């Protein structure tokens, strides 16, 4: 069994490497598409020809979109290739820091951030920050239509691992689509509803798995979503029992965990 | 606007920039912003590693350039046909005429191994080439402003040879 999982890991690493280099090779033709369609647009603005300008814009938009897909491919495959550098990370200050960085996008909005006391986990700080940034910016994005958005970040424990949950009162989604949630470039919303490539949660899942943890979600359309993330850090023996007793939702969550992201 | 063919500028004058790049579309997109920054700057282009070295060392088709000082900046793409970018860099550093010439390596990847090799071989700087036009333009113009404006060029090699 050990041999086989080592082989699987080797093949996966090889695939990530191929994906990474192919993505890089795609950047040169994209740069040229973007560059020349831009020049064409500039030319046409000087000598107006409406349909030519529109075609140039479409080429430019398509190339721009492909560029961001390629950027995401590079980021996703980098997660797989990268070595894990675990060290103790205090989740509280990290979450604070990310919320601060999201301010520029939340300036015009009313968001009630509810930050509970969070544990210290053993994780790769760079990857962890990437995962949490994705979860928090999703919460910000999908609560956009709420006059008053509530985003609550609380500790969770599952399968003996510590982690956190990000709970929002945003648009949510049908649990029937939950399996698609973590697939690369899978989206549950139209591009004109919510922008995005569908790479964020795929990254979060890779980061969780790389740490020996999991990510999963619960949601209801129009009532919000909760994303759970664990990172392979065991709950200290003594505290584990206390927590179970203290958390009335514990059981319900456990049930839901079964329909989690592993399927995708 | 297209890049001039190598050697069309007065042979005695060193160019400000030697761009080593094989892809004609990339050449056009790279030269454009640099020209915009300074329309008067002399920019020469070598289309592969061999041509770059012939040009810099005044060999082959560029024999008339023997004795011309090196350009103030060499912009080097790493992926080149025939002699690749790292080989070009090695040869530039090994030749007394060009050993001090500022070389900025343009990459499209941030591959740590490639970066380490480039720095070990004496690259002065490595820059990832942005994909989007605005970023590409500002990156290239920053390079131009820094290396042709702020940076002090190395003194000419001592006239021993």
Question: Could you describe the 3D structure shown?
Answer:
The complex is a heterodimer of chains A (264) and B (161). Chain A is built from seven helices and seven strands; from the N terminus they run H-H-E-H-E-E-H-E-E-H-E-E-H-H. Chain A is 53% helix and 18% strand. Chain A starts with a helix and ends in a 7-residue tail after the last helix. Chain A is globular and about 75 Å long. In chain A, a hairpin with a 3-residue loop joins strand 6 and strand 7. A five-stranded mixed sheet of chain A has the order 2-4-5-7-6, sandwiched between helices. In chain A, 33% of the residues are buried. Chain B has five helices and five strands; from the N terminus they run βαβαβαβαβα. Chain B has a five-stranded parallel sheet, with helices on both faces. At the A-B interface, helix 1 and helix 2 of A face helix 1 of B.
Task: Supply the key terms.
heterodimer; A: 264 residues; alpha+beta; five-stranded mixed β-sheet; two-stranded antiparallel ribbon; 53% helix; disordered C terminus; B: 161 residues; alpha/beta; five-stranded parallel β-sheet; 5 helices; 37% helix
Concise synopsis of the structure shown:
The complex is a heterodimer of chains A (264) and B (161). Chain A contains seven helices and seven strands; from the N terminus they run H-H-E-H-E-E-H-E-E-H-E-E-H-H.
Overall morphology of chain B: globular
User: What does the largest sheet of chain A look like?
Assistant: 5 strands, mixed
| Rounded mean pLDDT score of chain B | 87
Structural class of chain A: alpha+beta
Total DSSP E strands of chain A: 7
Oligomer: heterodimer
Question: Which sequence of SSEs, written as H and E, runs from N to C of chain B?
Answer: EHEHEHEHEH
Query: CA-to-CA gap between the ends of chain B?
Result: 38 Å
The number of E-state strands of chain B comes to 5
Structural class of chain B: alpha/beta
Q: If you compute it from the alpha carbons, what radius of gyration of chain B comes out, rounded to the nearest whole angstrom?
A: 15 Å
Total helical segments of chain B: 5
Largest sheet of chain B: 5 strands, parallel
Spans of chain B of at least 5 consecutive residues whose pLDDT stays below 50 are 7-11
Total number of helical segments of chain A? 7
